[in-house]
Design a protein that fits this description.
single chain, 230 residues, alpha/beta, Rossmann fold, six-stranded mixed sheet, 7 helices, 10 strands, binds adenosine-5'-triphosphate, binds magnesium ion
Length: 230
C-alpha cells in the first residue's frame, strides 16, 4: 500500500479479534491491515459468519479488538476512554446498518438530526442540511413520517441521511440494501453513491453482491480472518 499518509482517513494495523465461547477461543479476525484514503470507496465481501460485521464495528469504534491498532483521521483509538471514542465517532464517522436502526418515536427529520441532538444543540445550518439531505434522497414529502409510516427503502434512505448529517470523513455501510428487494436496493444504492461523491466522503461497504462491489475503487474478500484484494 503506497498511499499518502496525510490523506488517510483510516489506518488499521494487525487487528485481531477472538470471542471466547464455552471456554473455547474462537478467532474471527487474524491480522487485518487496511488503509482508506480520503474520498476512497472500498467494498468487503465474504461468506456469512466470516467476520464482516465484527470488522466494521471494530473499525467504527463500536466494539473492541483483541489486539491491533486503529487510527481515524490521525486519532489513535487505542487507549482512549469510551466517551473520547464516542466523540471521534460522532465527528468523523457515519454508520449504516443492514436494518435501519431508526428510532421509532421520532420522525424522519428528527432521526436524521439525532447524531447532533445527542451531542448538543441543533443549529440552523444543521436543520438546513438535514432538509437538503432528505430532499436529495427523494424524501421531501416524508419529513414528518415516523419509521413505521415509511417503506423499507425510505427507511434506509433516512438512515443514509442520518449517517452523513455530521459530514463524516468516513461512512461504514453494513449490507445497507441487504434487506431490500433488488430493484429498491439498486435505487437506494445509486442515490447513496451519488451523495457520497457529492460529499466526498470515504466509504467502506460490506456486500454480498459482486455488482455492488464493482462500484467501489477496491474490493476485498474477508476469509479465514484475513482481508485480501478481491
Ligand atoms: N458476541 C459474540 N460472541 C461470540 N461469537 C460471536 C459474537 N459475535 C459474533 N460472533 C461470531 O463471529 C463470527 C462472525 O460474525 P459476524 O457477524 O461478524 O459475521 P458476518 O460476516 O457479518 O456474517 P453475515 O454475512 O451473516 O452478516 C460468527 O461466526 C459469529 O457467530
Ligand atoms: Mg454481518
Amino acid at each position: 500500500m503506497n498511499k499518502d499518509i496525510d490523506s488517510l482517513v483510516l489506518i488499521c494495523n494487525n487487528l485481531h479479534k477472538s470471542y471466547i465461547s464455552a471456554s473455547t477461543k474462537l478467532p474471527i479476525l487474524c491480522g487485518i491491515n487496511l488503509e482508506v484514503a480520503s474520498g476512497e470507496t472500498i467494498s468487503i465481501v465474504g461468506s456469512s459468519g466470516s467476520g464482516k460485521s465484527t470488522l466494521l464495528h471494530i473499525l467504527a469504534g463500536l466494539d473492541n479488538a483483541t489486539s491491533g491498532s486503529i487510527i481515524i483521521d490521525g486519532h489513535v483509538l487505542n487507549g482512549l476512554k469510551d466517551n473520547q471514542v464516542c466523540n471521534i465517532r460522532n465527528q468523523k464517522l457515519g454508520f449504516i446498518y443492514q436494518f435501519h436502526h431508526l428510532l421509532p418515536e421520532f420522525t424522519a427529520y428528527e432521526n436524521v438530526l439525532m447524531p447532533i441532538l445527542i451531542h448538543g444543540n441543533v443549529n440552523a445550518d444543521n436543520k438546513e442540511f438535514a432538509m437538503h439531505l432528505l430532499n436529495r434522497l427523494g424524501l421531501d414529502k416524508r419529513f414528518s413520517h415516523y419509521p413505521s409510516q415509511l417503506s423499507g427503502g425510505e427507511r434506509q434512505r433516512v438512515a443514509i441521511a442520518r449517517a452523513v448529517i455530521n459530514n463524516p470523513k468516513l461512512v461504514f455501510a453494513d449490507e445497507p440494501t441487504g434487506n431490500l428487494d433488488n430493484h429498491t436496493g439498486s435505487q437506494v444504492l445509486e442515490i447513496f453513491f451519488s451523495l457520497q461523491k457529492e460529499l466526498k466522503t470515504s466509504l467502506i461497504i460490506v456486500t454480498h453482491d459482486p455488482a455492488i462491489a464493482a462500484l467501489t475503487k477496491s474490493s476485498y474478500r474477508l476469509k479465514d480472518g484475513l482481508l485480501n484484494l478481491y
